[in-house]
Design brief:
By secondary structure, the protein is of the alpha+beta class. The chain is built from seven helices and four strands. Strands 1-2 form a two-stranded antiparallel ribbon. The model has no long low-confidence stretch (mean pLDDT 75).
Length: 195
């Protein structure tokens, strides 16, 4: 007899039965909620999401570049009127679009391009509305006819302009977003039809 024969062999243990998926779900639902508070979802956020969805459909120019802006900063500091980097880069883009109008052409039907005389430039401006900070679109109409200082002044004014007048959210648009059951889908085809 060997020395290991006196040690009893281990009895096989069966794992405990796994709870059913329904039991697991009930156990999860009984857990306490994470601490926090609930606040009302601002109705304007739905409006902002609709505007962003429409904006994705339009032709856009996205820029990603690296540049030495030391000369630009020297020029900006020498200017008498205040000009931000944003308005300086925007004016540079506008000058390039003025020289190359096909860059902002809109395809109309199958065989035509619409070459616009004016360049409208869209900016995202952070605004506070009903205690919530929201990104709202601001469109500078005829921006190619404005200086960098004028663009800067428009952007600064857009940050504090009252909503519901002209600009970011027109009065007609502001009447729709608080409506509880307003469906913007019927209005969208008219927005999409003509740029």
């Amino acid at each position: 007899m060997s020395e290991f024969s006196s040690v009893p062999s281990p009895t096989p243990t069966t794992p405990p039965p796994k709870p059913s998926p329904w039991a697991q779900l009930r156990a999860e639902l009984k857990k306490p909620r994470a601490p926090g508070k609930r606040i009302a979802y601002p109705p304007i956020r739905n409006f902002v999401l609709d505007l962003m969805a429409e904006g994705r459909r339009k032709n856009t120019i996205n820029l990603a570049f690296e540049a030495d802006i030391s000369d630009a900063l020297a020029r900006l500091s020498a200017m008498t009127a205040p000009v931000s980097i944003t308005s300086f880069v925007a004016k540079s883009l506008l000058l390039a679009l003025d020289e190359n109008p096909h860059m902002q052409a809109y395809r109309y039907g199958r065989g035509e391009l619409v070459l616009f005389d004016d360049v409208d430039l869209s900016f995202t401006v952070e605004r506070e509305l009903d205690g919530a900070v929201l990104p709202l679109a601001f469109i500078s109409r005829g921006a190619n006819r404005k200086s960098a200082a004028q663009l800067h002044a428009e952007l600064q004014a857009a940050k504090v302009a009252p909503l519901g007048g002209t600009g970011q959210i027109a009065a007609a648009e502001k009447t729709f977003f608080p409506a509880p059951n307003f469906n913007p889908r019927p209005v969208r085809p008219s927005i999409r039809y003509d740029p």
